[in-house]
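Batch manifest, entry 17 of 40.
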Amino acid sequence: MSGADKKRFNAGRRDFIKTMTIAGVAATLPGRAFADMSPERGGRKGQAGGKKSLLCLSSNPETHGKYIESIGSIPGTALLVSSVKVNYQNPEEIIRVIHEHTMDILLLILPRMTFSFGKLCDAMGDLDIPVIVLTTNPELIPIDANLASSLRGNGANVTFAISPEQALERIRIAASPMLLEGQRAVLYGRPFDSTTVTSHNLNEEIIYRRTGVKVMFRPIEELAGLYRKVDDKEAIKEMERWKREATEVIGVPDKNILDACRLYVLLRSIIDKEGLSAVSIDCLGFTMSPNPVLPYPCLAFARLRDEGITAACEADVCSMLSSMLMEKISRRPSFMCNLMTANPGGSKITVSHCVAPLKLMGLDAPQMRYKIHDYHGSGRGAVPEVEFPAHGQVLVGGFSKDLKRFSLWPGMIESQVMDTEKSTSKSGPMNNMCANTMDLKIRDAGRFMQNIPGLHQIMVLASYTGAYEDALTGMDVKISGPIDFTPFMA
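Output type: structure tokens
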């Protein structure tokens, strides 16, 4: 170690001891009340579309002037930057400044040396926006790191940066347009009141603010009325294709397949006319009826997914948004499935559903082999049983119910149940196995069980990449997952 380096190290160590000693004294001082100063009372943009705003708080903005100015010219962003001088020893002042400003991103440039941040973290709470904490003393970070950790403990989505360049990169990610921004989706059914998966805590505004997706709900009766007017010409072509490319059609009359193909033709025309990225139907709200107003949509949804359109089952809002994100990043159609059971000791789960895309390896890849049979042995509908790749690497995940977290779990297809039309059930006339049922080997199944996003899981034949973290950071969404994201090896 050189003399200069040794001197700098010793000085830093003395400063550290001094700082920690005084901080210990400061921690014993009585805290001050922050009544009516909660940041939640302040304005928040939090809106998709248009320019985003960043508020920079610094004790010495003159020193950081050029750096703060550079934030407004980060490539690929359109940031409105506001800079305010604050005293980090006065939490009430900082809360007041936050209270008075609207912002999408908060940047805290910390002072080079401070004794303690006192009650600041408790007063700030969960700001519900990305927070970047930039230390200006990267060789002595304990107190700065503790502030970042304490803010996280209160629910804030915090990045602790130890260099200006690292902070700029995180700002770039947070300021870039959200991955799904501007996409539009239509769901047929009662608004946020699906027969199987309700989302009463959400509304169109929350979804748009969180994801950038514009969702619209329409009555199923509207779709049923349009369905009765579909010309059979294109539907017959689609039916012949399904039959021709299947390895086998087991006990399904042409009418069942044709009805599903008529629904596909209708949905495809609506998607093309309105420029939609996703569609969903509250299918279980009518398919069990003696006189359903629409056919089973399984074949229609499978084809739409193969064509790059998110087609989500059961009007499940969160799963539809999850599918949109995972399909966008992986560039592959998704398998939306039920979690049937789990074996934490064996780190295994079983997933199952009747709709599966054929082009699991990508929209330009050859489609998988499949056969067609009826829905759960009921004699109704038509579903594709698809041969998934043996030992295929998968990623399973989904948004939490409040869209604030995203579960992501790597896994591998261990085995698949074939000939599901032959399975039987002890509990009723229909067999109890969906057409596409398989066991997945996943990491830390016990932890997975405590982070299940909901009734449906979204699975893609792909591995985890940093693109997921970037996209979710841009949405101010936290990732839940195993410690190890390394793909399984067959």
